[in-house]
Protein backbone atom coordinates (compact mmCIF):
# COMPACT_ATOMS: atom_id res chain seq x y z
CA UNK A 1 0.00 0.00 0.00
CA UNK A 2 2.80 2.42 0.91
CA UNK A 3 4.56 1.82 -2.42
CA UNK A 4 1.35 2.48 -4.33
CA UNK A 5 0.81 5.76 -2.41
CA UNK A 6 4.28 7.18 -3.13
CA UNK A 7 4.15 6.06 -6.75
CA UNK A 8 0.87 7.94 -7.10
CA UNK A 9 2.34 11.13 -5.55
CA UNK A 10 5.55 11.10 -7.57
CA UNK A 11 3.68 10.08 -10.66
CA UNK A 12 1.34 13.05 -10.27
CA UNK A 13 4.27 15.43 -9.73
CA UNK A 14 5.95 14.03 -12.82
CA UNK A 15 2.85 14.68 -14.88
CA UNK A 16 2.61 18.23 -13.47
CA UNK A 17 6.22 18.95 -14.38
CA UNK A 18 5.64 17.55 -17.85
CA UNK A 19 2.61 19.82 -18.30
CA UNK A 20 4.57 22.85 -17.13
CA UNK A 21 7.41 22.15 -19.55
CA UNK A 22 4.91 21.80 -22.37
CA UNK A 23 3.46 25.21 -21.56
CA UNK A 24 6.95 26.67 -21.48
CA UNK A 25 7.89 25.15 -24.82
CA UNK A 26 4.65 26.29 -26.45
CA UNK A 27 4.99 29.69 -24.76
CA UNK A 28 1.47 29.37 -23.40
CA UNK A 29 1.91 31.79 -20.52
CA UNK A 30 -1.76 31.91 -19.55
CA UNK A 31 -1.99 28.13 -19.08
CA UNK A 32 1.34 28.18 -17.25
CA UNK A 33 0.12 30.83 -14.80
CA UNK A 34 -3.08 28.88 -14.18
CA UNK A 35 -1.18 25.75 -13.23
CA UNK A 36 -1.35 24.83 -9.54
CA UNK A 37 2.41 24.24 -9.25
CA UNK A 38 3.67 27.41 -10.93
CA UNK A 39 4.51 29.17 -7.67
CA UNK A 40 6.28 26.11 -6.31
CA UNK A 41 8.31 25.77 -9.50
CA UNK A 42 9.57 29.32 -9.13
CA UNK A 43 10.31 28.85 -5.43
CA UNK A 44 12.24 25.68 -6.25
CA UNK A 45 14.36 27.64 -8.74
CA UNK A 46 13.15 26.06 -11.97
CA UNK A 47 15.44 27.70 -14.49
CA UNK A 48 13.30 26.93 -17.54
CA UNK A 49 10.18 28.49 -16.01
CA UNK A 50 12.06 31.52 -14.67
CA UNK A 51 13.85 32.13 -17.97
CA UNK A 52 10.55 31.92 -19.84
CA UNK A 53 8.82 34.39 -17.50
CA UNK A 54 11.76 36.79 -17.88
CA UNK A 55 11.27 36.96 -21.66
CA UNK A 56 9.95 40.26 -23.12
CA UNK A 57 6.52 38.95 -24.12
CA UNK A 58 6.07 37.24 -20.77
CA UNK A 59 6.98 40.40 -18.81
CA UNK A 60 4.53 42.49 -20.83
CA UNK A 61 1.71 39.99 -20.38
CA UNK A 62 2.33 39.55 -16.66
CA UNK A 63 2.17 43.32 -16.10
CA UNK A 64 -1.08 43.40 -18.07
CA UNK A 65 -2.49 40.62 -15.90
CA UNK A 66 -1.30 42.42 -12.76
CA UNK A 67 -3.20 45.57 -13.70
CA UNK A 68 -6.41 43.87 -14.85
CA UNK A 69 -9.10 44.92 -12.37
CA UNK A 70 -11.75 42.59 -13.84
CA UNK A 71 -13.48 40.46 -11.19
CA UNK A 72 -13.98 37.55 -13.59
CA UNK A 73 -12.61 34.43 -11.78
CA UNK A 74 -9.95 33.48 -14.37
CA UNK A 75 -8.63 37.03 -14.60
CA UNK A 76 -8.64 37.35 -10.82
CA UNK A 77 -6.61 34.11 -10.62
CA UNK A 78 -4.07 35.43 -13.13
CA UNK A 79 -3.87 38.74 -11.28
CA UNK A 80 -3.19 37.03 -7.95
CA UNK A 81 -0.67 34.59 -9.38
CA UNK A 82 1.38 37.27 -11.11
CA UNK A 83 1.39 39.37 -7.94
CA UNK A 84 2.69 36.36 -5.98
CA UNK A 85 5.40 35.77 -8.58
CA UNK A 86 6.67 39.32 -8.37
CA UNK A 87 6.49 39.22 -4.56
CA UNK A 88 8.68 36.07 -4.56
CA UNK A 89 11.52 38.51 -5.36
CA UNK A 90 12.96 36.33 -8.08
CA UNK A 91 16.03 38.30 -9.10
CA UNK A 92 16.04 37.07 -12.72
CA UNK A 93 12.51 38.33 -13.37
CA UNK A 94 13.01 41.61 -11.48
CA UNK A 95 16.34 42.27 -13.22
CA UNK A 96 14.64 41.69 -16.58
CA UNK A 97 12.23 44.53 -15.74
CA UNK A 98 14.89 46.88 -14.33
CA UNK A 99 17.22 46.40 -17.31
CA UNK A 100 14.65 47.56 -19.84
CA UNK A 101 13.31 51.14 -19.58
CA UNK A 102 10.24 50.16 -21.59
CA UNK A 103 9.25 47.65 -18.94
CA UNK A 104 9.84 50.18 -16.16
CA UNK A 105 7.58 52.64 -17.98
CA UNK A 106 4.97 49.95 -18.39
CA UNK A 107 5.01 49.40 -14.64
CA UNK A 108 4.21 53.08 -14.10
CA UNK A 109 1.63 53.28 -16.87
CA UNK A 110 -0.96 51.96 -14.45
CA UNK A 111 -1.31 55.67 -13.59
CA UNK A 112 -2.67 56.31 -17.10
CA UNK A 113 -6.39 55.54 -17.46
CA UNK A 114 -7.66 53.56 -20.42
CA UNK A 115 -9.06 55.60 -23.31
CA UNK A 116 -12.21 53.75 -24.37
CA UNK A 117 -12.64 55.88 -27.47
CA UNK A 118 -9.21 55.10 -28.91
CA UNK A 119 -8.88 51.66 -27.27
CA UNK A 120 -5.55 52.47 -25.68
CA UNK A 121 -3.97 54.08 -22.64
CA UNK A 122 -4.46 57.83 -22.37
CA UNK A 123 -1.39 59.90 -23.11
CA UNK A 124 0.02 62.60 -20.80
CA UNK A 125 -1.85 65.47 -22.44
CA UNK A 126 -5.16 63.60 -22.32
CA UNK A 127 -4.57 62.73 -18.67
CA UNK A 128 -4.35 66.38 -17.62
CA UNK A 129 -7.82 67.28 -18.92
CA UNK A 130 -9.66 64.26 -17.53
CA UNK A 131 -11.99 64.75 -14.54
CA UNK A 132 -10.63 63.42 -11.21
CA UNK A 133 -12.92 60.37 -11.10
CA UNK A 134 -11.59 59.25 -14.49
CA UNK A 135 -8.01 59.50 -13.30
CA UNK A 136 -8.44 57.33 -10.21
CA UNK A 137 -6.46 54.07 -10.35
CA UNK A 138 -8.61 51.04 -9.40
CA UNK A 139 -7.77 49.96 -5.85
CA UNK A 140 -6.55 46.44 -6.74
CA UNK A 141 -4.30 47.86 -9.44
CA UNK A 142 -2.95 50.56 -7.13
CA UNK A 143 -2.13 47.98 -4.45
CA UNK A 144 -0.37 45.68 -6.93
CA UNK A 145 1.53 48.66 -8.36
CA UNK A 146 2.72 49.66 -4.90
CA UNK A 147 3.92 46.15 -4.06
CA UNK A 148 5.71 45.69 -7.40
CA UNK A 149 7.59 49.00 -7.22
CA UNK A 150 8.56 48.40 -3.60
CA UNK A 151 9.93 44.95 -4.46
CA UNK A 152 11.66 46.23 -7.57
CA UNK A 153 13.60 49.03 -5.86
CA UNK A 154 14.62 47.13 -2.72
CA UNK A 155 17.85 46.38 -4.54
CA UNK A 156 20.09 49.47 -4.84
CA UNK A 157 21.18 48.69 -8.39
CA UNK A 158 17.60 48.28 -9.59
CA UNK A 159 16.57 51.40 -7.65
CA UNK A 160 19.15 53.46 -9.54
CA UNK A 161 17.95 52.08 -12.87
CA UNK A 162 14.36 52.98 -12.05
CA UNK A 163 15.35 56.53 -11.08
CA UNK A 164 17.42 56.95 -14.25
CA UNK A 165 14.46 55.80 -16.30
CA UNK A 166 12.17 58.34 -14.62
CA UNK A 167 14.79 61.06 -15.12
CA UNK A 168 14.77 60.28 -18.85
CA UNK A 169 10.97 60.19 -18.91
CA UNK A 170 9.83 63.02 -16.64
CA UNK A 171 6.27 62.58 -17.82
CA UNK A 172 6.07 59.81 -15.20
CA UNK A 173 5.98 62.55 -12.55
CA UNK A 174 3.00 64.13 -14.31
CA UNK A 175 1.29 60.75 -14.16
CA UNK A 176 1.94 60.71 -10.42
CA UNK A 177 0.74 64.30 -9.93
CA UNK A 178 -2.59 63.56 -11.61
CA UNK A 179 -2.98 60.05 -10.22
CA UNK A 180 -2.56 60.70 -6.50
CA UNK A 181 -5.97 59.82 -5.11
CA UNK A 182 -5.34 56.72 -3.02
CA UNK A 183 -2.99 55.56 -0.30
CA UNK A 184 -1.17 52.90 -2.42
CA UNK A 185 -0.23 55.43 -5.13
CA UNK A 186 0.95 57.96 -2.53
CA UNK A 187 2.88 55.22 -0.75
CA UNK A 188 4.55 54.23 -4.00
CA UNK A 189 5.69 57.81 -4.54
CA UNK A 190 7.05 57.78 -1.02
CA UNK A 191 9.06 54.62 -1.77
CA UNK A 192 10.52 56.08 -4.96
CA UNK A 193 11.63 59.23 -3.13
CA UNK A 194 12.54 57.70 0.19
CA UNK A 195 15.67 59.15 1.72
CA UNK A 196 18.70 57.21 0.62
CA UNK A 197 22.13 57.61 2.19
CA UNK A 198 23.69 57.12 -1.23
CA UNK A 199 24.50 60.69 -2.39
CA UNK A 200 24.13 59.72 -6.05
CA UNK A 201 20.60 58.44 -5.41
CA UNK A 202 19.67 61.58 -3.49
CA UNK A 203 20.97 63.74 -6.30
CA UNK A 204 18.93 61.77 -8.84
CA UNK A 205 15.79 62.16 -6.76
CA UNK A 206 16.36 65.91 -6.41
CA UNK A 207 16.93 66.39 -10.14
CA UNK A 208 13.74 64.51 -10.96
CA UNK A 209 11.60 66.53 -8.55
CA UNK A 210 12.96 69.87 -9.75
CA UNK A 211 13.24 69.27 -13.49
CA UNK A 212 9.80 67.68 -13.72
CA UNK A 213 8.26 70.68 -11.90
CA UNK A 214 6.54 68.13 -9.72
CA UNK A 215 6.03 70.57 -6.84
CA UNK A 216 4.29 73.03 -9.15
CA UNK A 217 2.14 70.25 -10.61
CA UNK A 218 1.00 69.17 -7.17
CA UNK A 219 0.10 72.74 -6.26
CA UNK A 220 -1.90 72.95 -9.50
CA UNK A 221 -4.32 70.42 -8.02
CA UNK A 222 -5.38 73.10 -5.52
CA UNK A 223 -5.69 75.73 -8.22
CA UNK A 224 -7.91 73.36 -10.20
CA UNK A 225 -10.18 72.75 -7.19
CA UNK A 226 -9.27 69.08 -6.83
CA UNK A 227 -11.47 66.60 -5.01
CA UNK A 228 -10.94 65.70 -1.34
CA UNK A 229 -9.30 62.30 -2.07
CA UNK A 230 -6.77 64.08 -4.26
CA UNK A 231 -5.86 67.05 -2.09
CA UNK A 232 -5.51 65.11 1.15
CA UNK A 233 -2.82 62.97 -0.52
CA UNK A 234 -1.16 66.01 -2.08
CA UNK A 235 -0.95 67.56 1.39
CA UNK A 236 0.55 64.33 2.74
CA UNK A 237 3.22 64.31 0.00
CA UNK A 238 4.23 67.88 0.86
CA UNK A 239 4.43 67.00 4.55
CA UNK A 240 6.60 64.01 3.70
CA UNK A 241 9.00 66.07 1.58
CA UNK A 242 9.23 68.84 4.16
CA UNK A 243 9.83 66.61 7.18
CA UNK A 244 12.28 64.13 5.62
CA UNK A 245 15.85 64.72 4.56
CA UNK A 246 15.17 65.60 0.94
CA UNK A 247 17.49 68.30 -0.26
CA UNK A 248 16.86 71.86 0.82
CA UNK A 249 16.32 72.87 -2.81
CA UNK A 250 13.09 70.87 -2.92
CA UNK A 251 11.88 72.26 0.41
CA UNK A 252 12.60 75.80 -0.76
CA UNK A 253 10.45 75.20 -3.84
CA UNK A 254 7.53 74.18 -1.64
CA UNK A 255 8.06 77.22 0.59
CA UNK A 256 8.43 79.84 -2.13
CA UNK A 257 5.37 78.72 -4.11
CA UNK A 258 3.09 78.41 -1.08
CA UNK A 259 2.21 82.12 -0.52
CA UNK A 260 0.80 82.63 -4.03
CA UNK A 261 -1.04 79.30 -4.02
CA UNK A 262 -2.55 80.07 -0.62
CA UNK A 263 -3.57 83.53 -1.83
CA UNK A 264 -5.42 82.03 -4.80
CA UNK A 265 -6.87 79.04 -2.94
CA UNK A 266 -8.10 80.39 0.41
CA UNK A 267 -11.13 82.23 -0.95
CA UNK A 268 -14.53 82.94 0.66
CA UNK A 269 -16.13 80.29 -1.55
CA UNK A 270 -13.45 77.59 -1.36
CA UNK A 271 -14.61 74.13 -0.34
CA UNK A 272 -13.80 73.60 3.37
CA UNK A 273 -11.64 70.55 2.60
CA UNK A 274 -9.50 72.72 0.30
CA UNK A 275 -9.01 75.22 3.12
CA UNK A 276 -8.19 72.46 5.58
CA UNK A 277 -5.55 70.83 3.38
CA UNK A 278 -3.96 74.15 2.43
CA UNK A 279 -3.78 75.01 6.13
CA UNK A 280 -2.08 71.66 6.77
CA UNK A 281 0.64 72.46 4.23
CA UNK A 282 1.04 75.98 5.61
CA UNK A 283 1.51 74.79 9.21
CA UNK A 284 4.14 72.20 8.28
CA UNK A 285 5.91 74.69 6.00
CA UNK A 286 6.12 77.29 8.75
CA UNK A 287 7.48 74.71 11.17
CA UNK A 288 10.19 73.69 8.71
CA UNK A 289 11.03 77.34 7.96
CA UNK A 290 11.60 77.89 11.69
CA UNK A 291 13.68 74.72 11.94
CA UNK A 292 15.79 75.44 8.88
CA UNK A 293 16.30 79.00 10.08
CA UNK A 294 17.77 77.63 13.29
CA UNK A 295 19.94 75.14 11.42
CA UNK A 296 21.15 77.77 8.94
CA UNK A 297 24.88 78.41 9.04
CA UNK A 298 24.90 81.72 7.20
CA UNK A 299 23.01 84.94 7.63
CA UNK A 300 21.75 84.72 4.03
CA UNK A 301 20.20 81.31 4.63
CA UNK A 302 18.65 82.41 7.90
CA UNK A 303 17.25 85.52 6.22
CA UNK A 304 15.74 83.41 3.45
CA UNK A 305 13.74 81.29 5.88
CA UNK A 306 12.73 84.31 7.96
CA UNK A 307 11.49 85.95 4.76
CA UNK A 308 9.54 82.81 3.85
CA UNK A 309 7.80 82.96 7.22
CA UNK A 310 7.00 86.63 6.72
CA UNK A 311 5.54 86.06 3.24
CA UNK A 312 3.37 83.12 4.33
CA UNK A 313 2.03 84.98 7.36
CA UNK A 314 1.31 88.09 5.27
CA UNK A 315 -1.03 85.92 3.17
CA UNK A 316 -2.55 83.91 6.02
CA UNK A 317 -3.49 86.78 8.34
CA UNK A 318 -6.02 88.41 5.96
CA UNK A 319 -7.46 84.96 5.25
CA UNK A 320 -7.78 84.29 8.98
CA UNK A 321 -9.48 87.65 9.43
CA UNK A 322 -12.02 86.86 6.72
CA UNK A 323 -12.93 83.40 7.99
CA UNK A 324 -13.05 84.39 11.67
CA UNK A 325 -15.38 87.30 10.90
CA UNK A 326 -18.05 84.84 9.75
CA UNK A 327 -20.87 83.69 12.00
CA UNK A 328 -21.42 80.09 12.95
CA UNK A 329 -24.74 78.66 11.83
CA UNK A 330 -26.81 75.60 12.66
CA UNK A 331 -25.51 72.39 11.12
CA UNK A 332 -22.13 70.79 11.79
CA UNK A 333 -21.17 70.69 8.10
CA UNK A 334 -22.09 74.29 7.39
CA UNK A 335 -19.14 75.85 5.46
CA UNK A 336 -18.90 78.84 7.80
CA UNK A 337 -18.57 76.56 10.80
CA UNK A 338 -15.82 74.54 9.12
CA UNK A 339 -13.92 77.65 8.03
CA UNK A 340 -13.89 78.91 11.61
CA UNK A 341 -12.92 75.58 13.19
CA UNK A 342 -10.19 74.87 10.61
CA UNK A 343 -8.77 78.36 11.11
CA UNK A 344 -8.64 78.01 14.88
CA UNK A 345 -7.03 74.58 14.54
CA UNK A 346 -4.27 75.73 12.19
CA UNK A 347 -3.41 78.71 14.42
CA UNK A 348 -3.05 76.30 17.36
CA UNK A 349 -0.81 74.06 15.24
CA UNK A 350 1.35 77.00 14.16
CA UNK A 351 1.88 78.17 17.74
CA UNK A 352 2.77 74.63 18.83
CA UNK A 353 5.95 75.02 16.77
CA UNK A 354 7.27 76.75 19.86
CA UNK A 355 7.22 73.44 21.71
CA UNK A 356 9.61 71.93 19.14
CA UNK A 357 12.07 74.83 19.16
CA UNK A 358 14.19 73.27 21.90
CA UNK A 359 14.70 70.17 19.77
CA UNK A 360 15.77 72.31 16.83
CA UNK A 361 18.26 74.10 19.07
CA UNK A 362 19.68 70.79 20.28
CA UNK A 363 20.03 69.60 16.70
CA UNK A 364 21.90 72.79 15.88
CA UNK A 365 24.17 72.35 18.85
CA UNK A 366 25.00 68.80 17.81
CA UNK A 367 25.66 69.96 14.27
CA UNK A 368 28.05 72.66 15.42
CA UNK A 369 29.90 70.37 17.78
CA UNK A 370 30.49 67.83 15.00
CA UNK A 371 32.15 70.23 12.57
CA UNK A 372 34.63 73.07 12.52
CA UNK A 373 31.97 75.77 12.07
CA UNK A 374 31.30 77.99 15.05
CA UNK A 375 28.83 80.86 15.34
CA UNK A 376 31.40 83.64 14.98
CA UNK A 377 29.25 85.28 12.33
CA UNK A 378 26.28 85.41 14.64
CA UNK A 379 28.43 86.81 17.44
CA UNK A 380 29.76 89.53 15.16
CA UNK A 381 26.27 90.45 14.05
CA UNK A 382 24.96 90.60 17.60
CA UNK A 383 27.94 92.74 18.56
CA UNK A 384 27.27 95.29 15.83
CA UNK A 385 23.57 95.16 16.60
CA UNK A 386 23.95 96.15 20.22
CA UNK A 387 26.75 98.61 19.56
CA UNK A 388 24.44 100.44 17.16
CA UNK A 389 21.64 100.12 19.74
CA UNK A 390 19.20 99.50 16.90
CA UNK A 391 16.55 98.08 19.19
CA UNK A 392 13.77 98.90 16.75
CA UNK A 393 15.14 96.44 14.18
CA UNK A 394 14.26 92.76 14.71
CA UNK A 395 17.13 90.39 15.28
CA UNK A 396 17.92 87.93 12.49
CA UNK A 397 16.78 84.42 13.22
CA UNK A 398 20.35 83.09 13.04
CA UNK A 399 21.05 84.40 16.54
CA UNK A 400 18.69 81.86 18.04
CA UNK A 401 21.22 79.07 18.27
CA UNK A 402 23.88 81.25 19.91
CA UNK A 403 21.89 81.17 23.13
CA UNK A 404 23.29 77.72 23.89
CA UNK A 405 26.91 78.85 24.09
CA UNK A 406 28.02 80.39 27.37
CA UNK A 407 31.07 81.92 25.68
CA UNK A 408 28.72 83.98 23.54
CA UNK A 409 27.34 85.64 26.65
CA UNK A 410 30.76 86.59 27.93
CA UNK A 411 31.93 87.76 24.51
CA UNK A 412 28.96 90.08 24.11
CA UNK A 413 29.49 91.49 27.58
CA UNK A 414 33.16 92.18 26.87
CA UNK A 415 32.47 93.94 23.60
CA UNK A 416 29.11 95.63 24.17
CA UNK A 417 28.67 95.66 27.97
CA UNK A 418 25.34 93.91 27.46
CA UNK A 419 25.18 91.43 30.30
CA UNK A 420 23.32 88.18 29.61
CA UNK A 421 22.69 87.49 33.27
CA UNK A 422 20.82 84.67 35.00
CA UNK A 423 17.50 86.41 34.45
CA UNK A 424 18.04 86.39 30.72
CA UNK A 425 19.29 82.81 30.78
CA UNK A 426 16.07 81.75 32.49
CA UNK A 427 14.21 83.76 29.90
CA UNK A 428 15.83 81.79 27.11
CA UNK A 429 15.20 78.37 28.59
CA UNK A 430 12.50 77.38 31.03
CA UNK A 431 11.75 73.95 32.43
CA UNK A 432 8.13 73.23 33.30
CA UNK A 433 7.15 70.24 35.38
CA UNK A 434 3.88 68.36 35.02
CA UNK A 435 2.61 65.04 36.44
CA UNK A 436 3.05 63.23 33.12
CA UNK A 437 6.06 64.73 31.38
CA UNK A 438 8.71 67.39 31.37
CA UNK A 439 8.70 69.90 28.53
CA UNK A 440 11.39 72.36 27.63
CA UNK A 441 10.37 75.64 26.03
CA UNK A 442 12.84 77.92 24.31
CA UNK A 443 12.04 81.63 23.95
CA UNK A 444 13.88 83.40 21.15
CA UNK A 445 14.12 87.12 21.75
CA UNK A 446 16.83 89.50 22.83
CA UNK A 447 17.57 90.82 26.32
CA UNK A 448 15.55 93.95 25.53
CA UNK A 449 12.69 91.76 24.30
CA UNK A 450 13.61 92.26 20.65
CA UNK A 451 11.76 89.74 18.51
CA UNK A 452 13.88 87.48 16.34
CA UNK A 453 12.54 87.29 12.81
CA UNK A 454 11.50 83.83 11.71
CA UNK A 455 10.43 82.66 15.17
CA UNK A 456 7.19 81.69 16.86
CA UNK A 457 7.43 84.92 18.85
CA UNK A 458 7.49 86.79 15.55
CA UNK A 459 4.47 84.79 14.36
CA UNK A 460 2.53 85.63 17.53
CA UNK A 461 3.31 89.32 17.12
CA UNK A 462 2.05 89.24 13.51
CA UNK A 463 -1.16 87.52 14.60
CA UNK A 464 -1.60 89.99 17.44
CA UNK A 465 -1.17 92.97 15.12
CA UNK A 466 -3.83 91.49 12.85
CA UNK A 467 -6.29 91.22 15.80
CA UNK A 468 -6.57 87.48 15.14
CA UNK A 469 -6.71 86.53 18.80
CA UNK A 470 -9.53 88.96 19.46
CA UNK A 471 -11.49 87.39 16.60
CA UNK A 472 -10.87 83.92 18.06
CA UNK A 473 -12.05 85.04 21.47
CA UNK A 474 -15.15 86.60 19.94
CA UNK A 475 -15.97 83.28 18.28
CA UNK A 476 -15.38 81.45 21.55
CA UNK A 477 -17.80 83.44 23.67
CA UNK A 478 -20.39 83.73 20.88
CA UNK A 479 -20.40 79.93 20.51
CA UNK A 480 -20.25 78.63 24.09
CA UNK A 481 -20.91 75.00 23.18
CA UNK A 482 -18.36 74.60 20.37
CA UNK A 483 -15.90 72.34 22.19
CA UNK A 484 -13.50 71.97 19.25
CA UNK A 485 -13.08 75.72 19.04
CA UNK A 486 -12.53 76.13 22.77
CA UNK A 487 -9.99 73.30 22.97
CA UNK A 488 -7.80 74.85 20.26
CA UNK A 489 -8.18 78.33 21.75
CA UNK A 490 -7.14 77.02 25.15
CA UNK A 491 -3.94 75.60 23.61
CA UNK A 492 -3.27 78.94 21.96
CA UNK A 493 -3.79 80.97 25.13
CA UNK A 494 -1.70 78.51 27.17
CA UNK A 495 1.25 79.09 24.87
CA UNK A 496 0.85 82.87 25.01
CA UNK A 497 0.59 82.73 28.81
CA UNK A 498 4.16 81.37 28.89
CA UNK A 499 5.36 84.85 27.92
CA UNK A 500 3.61 86.73 30.75
CA UNK A 501 6.67 86.63 33.09
CA UNK A 502 8.75 88.30 30.35
CA UNK A 503 6.16 91.05 29.78
CA UNK A 504 6.19 90.58 26.04
CA UNK A 505 4.09 93.27 24.27
CA UNK A 506 1.79 90.75 22.61
CA UNK A 507 0.70 89.29 25.96
CA UNK A 508 -0.66 92.69 26.96
CA UNK A 509 -2.62 92.84 23.69
CA UNK A 510 -4.16 89.40 24.19
CA UNK A 511 -4.37 88.38 27.85
CA UNK A 512 -5.93 91.62 28.99
CA UNK A 513 -9.07 92.87 30.67
CA UNK A 514 -10.98 92.78 27.38
CA UNK A 515 -10.41 89.03 27.12
CA UNK A 516 -11.71 88.33 30.63
CA UNK A 517 -14.69 90.66 30.17
CA UNK A 518 -15.67 88.67 27.07
CA UNK A 519 -15.26 85.35 28.88
CA UNK A 520 -17.39 86.73 31.68
CA UNK A 521 -20.07 87.89 29.25
CA UNK A 522 -20.04 84.47 27.61
CA UNK A 523 -20.47 82.35 30.73
CA UNK A 524 -23.02 84.81 32.11
CA UNK A 525 -24.96 84.65 28.88
CA UNK A 526 -25.33 80.87 29.34
CA UNK A 527 -26.88 81.39 32.79
CA UNK A 528 -30.46 82.23 33.71
CA UNK A 529 -29.71 85.75 34.82
CA UNK A 530 -31.61 88.92 33.98
CA UNK A 531 -29.82 92.19 34.67
CA UNK A 532 -30.82 95.83 34.40
CA UNK A 533 -28.84 98.76 33.05
CA UNK A 534 -27.53 100.05 36.37
CA UNK A 535 -26.16 96.64 37.29
CA UNK A 536 -24.54 96.18 33.88
CA UNK A 537 -22.75 99.48 34.33
CA UNK A 538 -21.34 98.36 37.64
CA UNK A 539 -20.18 95.05 36.17
CA UNK A 540 -18.45 96.50 33.11
CA UNK A 541 -16.67 99.38 34.83
CA UNK A 542 -15.88 97.48 37.98
CA UNK A 543 -16.63 100.54 40.13
CA UNK A 544 -18.36 100.80 43.46
CA UNK A 545 -21.57 102.77 43.57
CA UNK A 546 -21.72 105.04 46.61
CA UNK A 547 -23.59 103.43 49.45
CA UNK A 548 -23.86 100.08 47.72
CA UNK A 549 -21.63 97.05 48.34
CA UNK A 550 -20.23 96.05 44.95
CA UNK A 551 -19.90 92.43 46.06
CA UNK A 552 -23.60 92.40 46.91
CA UNK A 553 -24.44 93.77 43.49
CA UNK A 554 -22.33 91.07 41.79
CA UNK A 555 -23.70 88.25 43.94
CA UNK A 556 -26.74 87.52 41.74
CA UNK A 557 -24.47 87.09 38.73
CA UNK A 558 -22.08 84.79 40.59
CA UNK A 559 -24.92 82.71 42.00
CA UNK A 560 -26.48 82.36 38.58
CA UNK A 561 -23.23 80.97 37.12
CA UNK A 562 -22.55 78.72 40.12
CA UNK A 563 -26.05 77.26 40.06
CA UNK A 564 -25.78 76.48 36.36
CA UNK A 565 -22.41 74.76 36.46
CA UNK A 566 -23.50 72.61 39.41
CA UNK A 567 -25.55 70.64 36.88
CA UNK A 568 -23.51 68.50 34.48
CA UNK A 569 -26.10 68.87 31.71
CA UNK A 570 -25.98 72.67 31.87
CA UNK A 571 -22.23 73.08 31.65
CA UNK A 572 -20.76 74.25 28.35
CA UNK A 573 -17.26 74.01 26.95
CA UNK A 574 -16.82 77.76 27.40
CA UNK A 575 -16.95 77.11 31.16
CA UNK A 576 -13.96 74.80 30.93
CA UNK A 577 -12.05 77.26 28.75
CA UNK A 578 -12.71 80.13 31.16
CA UNK A 579 -11.79 78.08 34.22
CA UNK A 580 -8.47 76.92 32.78
CA UNK A 581 -7.30 80.16 31.20
CA UNK A 582 -8.12 82.24 34.30
CA UNK A 583 -6.18 79.77 36.43
CA UNK A 584 -3.21 79.53 34.06
CA UNK A 585 -2.93 83.25 33.31
CA UNK A 586 -3.15 84.25 36.95
CA UNK A 587 -0.57 81.66 38.01
CA UNK A 588 1.82 82.92 35.32
CA UNK A 589 1.55 86.44 36.73
CA UNK A 590 -1.32 88.34 35.16
CA UNK A 591 -2.86 91.08 37.31
CA UNK A 592 -5.82 89.98 39.43
CA UNK A 593 -8.39 92.50 38.23
CA UNK A 594 -11.99 92.65 39.50
CA UNK A 595 -13.11 90.67 36.46
CA UNK A 596 -10.49 87.95 37.01
CA UNK A 597 -11.45 87.83 40.69
CA UNK A 598 -15.14 87.56 39.75
CA UNK A 599 -14.47 84.61 37.44
CA UNK A 600 -12.21 82.95 40.01
CA UNK A 601 -14.98 83.10 42.59
CA UNK A 602 -17.58 81.80 40.15
CA UNK A 603 -15.47 78.75 39.35
CA UNK A 604 -14.15 78.43 42.90
CA UNK A 605 -10.48 78.60 41.98
CA UNK A 606 -9.52 81.47 44.31
CA UNK A 607 -7.12 79.33 46.37
CA UNK A 608 -5.25 78.24 43.25
CA UNK A 609 -4.65 81.92 42.49
CA UNK A 610 -3.58 82.75 46.03
CA UNK A 611 -6.66 84.89 46.59
Q: How many β-strand stretches?
A: 4
Q: Roughly what fraction of the amino acids lie in strands?
A: under 5%
Task: Give the low-confidence spans.
Answer: 3-12, 398-407, 424-439, 531-549
Number of helices: 34
Oligomer designation: single chain
**Widest sheet: strand ordering:** 1-2
Measured distance between first and last alpha carbons: 97 Å
Based on Cα principal axes, name the global outline: elongated
Rounded mean pLDDT score: 81
The biggest beta sheet, please?
2 strands, antiparallel
Question: How much helix, percentage-wise, in residues?
Answer: 55-70%
Structural class: mainly alpha
Architecture overview:
The protein is elongated and about 100 Å long. The chain has 611 residues and is mainly α. The model is unreliable at 3-12, 398-407, 424-439 and 531-549 (pLDDT under 50). The strands form 2 sheets. The protein has a two-stranded antiparallel sheet with strand order 1-2. Strands 3-4 form a two-stranded antiparallel sheet. The protein has helices spanning 2-25, 29-34, 38-43, 47-53, 56-66, 73-87, 91-98, 101-108, 124-129, 132-135, 139-152, 156-168, 171-179, 183-192, 199-211, 214-223, 228-243, 248-265, 272-295, 299-324, 335-351, 353-369, 376-388, 406-416, 422-428, 456-465, 468-478, 483-497, 505-510, 513-525, 533-541, 550-565, 573-588, 594-602; strands at residues 114-115, 120-121, 429-433, 438-442. Among the domains are: 276-479, no CATH class; 480-609, no CATH class. It contains 34 helices and 4 strands.
Amino acid sequence: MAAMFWNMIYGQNGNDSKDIQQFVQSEDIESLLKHDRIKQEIQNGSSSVTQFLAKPNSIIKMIDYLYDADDEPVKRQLNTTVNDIFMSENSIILEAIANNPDYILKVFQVLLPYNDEHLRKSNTDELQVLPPESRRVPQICAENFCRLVFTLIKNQSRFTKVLNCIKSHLEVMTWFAFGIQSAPVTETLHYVFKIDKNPDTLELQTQILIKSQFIEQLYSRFQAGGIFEELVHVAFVFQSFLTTEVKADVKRLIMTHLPQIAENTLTPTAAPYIVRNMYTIAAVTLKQAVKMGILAETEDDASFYANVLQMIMSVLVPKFQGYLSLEMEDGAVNPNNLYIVHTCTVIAEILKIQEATSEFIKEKEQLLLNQSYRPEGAIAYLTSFYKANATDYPLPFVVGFTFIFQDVYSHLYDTTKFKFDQTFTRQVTQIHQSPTKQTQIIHLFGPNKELCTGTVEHIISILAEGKIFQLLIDQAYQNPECGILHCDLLNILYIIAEYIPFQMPFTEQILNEELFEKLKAGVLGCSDFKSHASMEKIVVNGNQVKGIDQRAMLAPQMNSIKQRIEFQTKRVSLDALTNQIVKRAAIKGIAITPTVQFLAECFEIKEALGM
